[in-house]
Design goal:
single chain; 238 residues; alpha/beta; Rossmann fold; six-stranded mixed sheet; 10 helices; 39% helix
């Protein structure tokens, strides 16, 4: 059974239809990619799952239980964390304080301290800069901090919105290698929204391609990588 099942999801922004009957599945301990050009509905899908946007229809199930329309706090407490597009770290807080903000729904202080150490092991650069303000970090370090903050919620499903945006290729490779490690070593499940299709398909096992609020094509990452229609029609890449 899938960890996450989204069926016929609909969402509107006022009179504008943002999602039209979107259905996706994210199996446990896997990386699933959600692909598409700007405005395809990828971010809105994540926001509906995380409770930031209230769906206009359809259902979202997590571990067999409905979470459709629940608050972001409730969704986080059930083991789903989102790393938003643009990182959105707290620039006037230290690295450590930013990470601890990710654990705001938790009360298990000893485990929080252990998880903080684990994040510093995962991202040694953050340990070196633990007392620096978030705003003083490079773009790549801020993305590491945003991922670390998401992990501090102790999620079983981590959703990432455009983690490669604006980063140098070598930093992108490091971050995607870390995501693979999280799945292999911590049995995390990842739903990845990404415009960098080649990198996303390299690390994921399955993908969905969206256009204008609909899922147009889905398949294994290998199949999608070989499909020229995906590149030309839905992503506008020759």
């Amino acid at each position: 059974m899938s960890s996450l099942q989204v069926e016929n999801l609909k969402a509107n922004y006022g009179p504008i239809t943002a999602l039209k009957d979107v259905s996706i599945e994210v199996p446990q301990k896997s990386i699933v990619a959600l692909l598409g050009a700007n405005g395809a509905g990828k971010s809105t899908t994540l926001k509906c799952i995380s409770g930031v946007v209230k769906p206009a229809g359809g259902s979202i199930q997590w571990d067999g239980a409905a979470i459709t329309g629940e608050t972001p706090n409730a969704v986080t407490r059930k083991g789903i964390a989102q790393v938003p597009e643009g990182r959105r770290i707290f620039k006037d807080l230290s690295v450590t304080d930013n990470l601890e903000m990710g654990a705001y729904t938790r009360s298990d202080r000893a485990q929080i301290e252990k998880d903080l150490d684990d994040i510093f092991d995962l991202f040694p650069r953050l340990k070196e800069r633990h007392s620096q303000l978030g705003g003083s970090l490079s773009g790549g370090e801020q993305q590491m901090l945003a991922i670390g903050r998401g992990l501090m919620a102790a999620p079983r499903l981590l959703m990432l919105d455009e983690p490669s945006l604006g980063l140098a290729p070598i930093v992108v490779s490091q971050i995607f290698e870390t995501l693979q490690r999280l799945v292999a070593e911590r049995e995390l499940t990842i739903l990845l929204v990404e415009q960098n299709m080649k990198m996303a398909l390299k690390v994921s096992s399955f993908g969905y391609v969206m256009q204008l609020g609909k899922v147009m094509i889905s398949g294994s990452s290998d199949e999608l990588e070989e499909n020229k229609e995906v590149y030309e029609t839905y992503l506008g890449i020759a």
